[in-house]
Amino acid sequence: MKILIATLLIVHGLIVASQSAGSFGAGTPIPNAAWLQWWPMGLGQSWVLSTLGLEASPLRALGSIVWLAGGLALVAAGMVLLGVGFISIGWQTAALVGSILSLAMFLIYLHPLMAVGIGASLAVLYIAVWADTTMLARWGL
Residue 135: its pLDDT value, please? Predict the structure, then answer.
């Protein structure tokens, strides 16, 4: 179970970190499919920055750094669980930081297609903070 959770943390972290490329301006928002035309923003477009007229501001670059930091923290949490020796933080601390940063960015760039990522970050937050120690011990964490 420990290897499965570590793998899921690493995969989720890589996906979160990959969102930073769009925030750096390398990508343009992806238009919504026909069945999703009711949603006002395209995938990769921040409703907060658009509403405030700051879509082309330096805040976009700051957002990319937060996406990247959140993703790297989740990857670090998975690596700690796998026993990688050069990382000296606890997996729960890294998972907590990564899930909070990713949830903040998921809310700023909210889109229905991000529901899975939001759910994954909420699950990581639950396991890192509120999970019973007996359950964690049973899972080998």
Answer: 66
CB atoms within 10 A of CB 133: 8
Per-domain residue ranges for the chain?
Answer: 2-24+56-138
């890192």: which residue's tokens? 128
Half-sphere exposure of 44 (CA within 13 A, CB side): 16
Q: Is the dihedral of CA 125, 68, 105, 13 positive or negative?
A: negative
* pLDDT tens by residue, 14-24: 999 988 766 55
Give residue for tokens 């390398």. Answer: 26
CA 137 from centre of chain: 25
Cβ(45)–Cβ(99) below 8 Å: no
Say how far apart CA 46 and CA 55 lie, in whole Å.
7
Length of the chain: 141
H-state helical runs in the chain: 2-18, 20-23, 47-51, 59-81, 91-108, 115-125, 133-138
Structure tokens at 71: 């993703």
**What spatial distance separates the first Cα and last Cα of the chain, rounded to whole Å?**
8
Q: Quick one: tokens of 92?
A: 């729960």
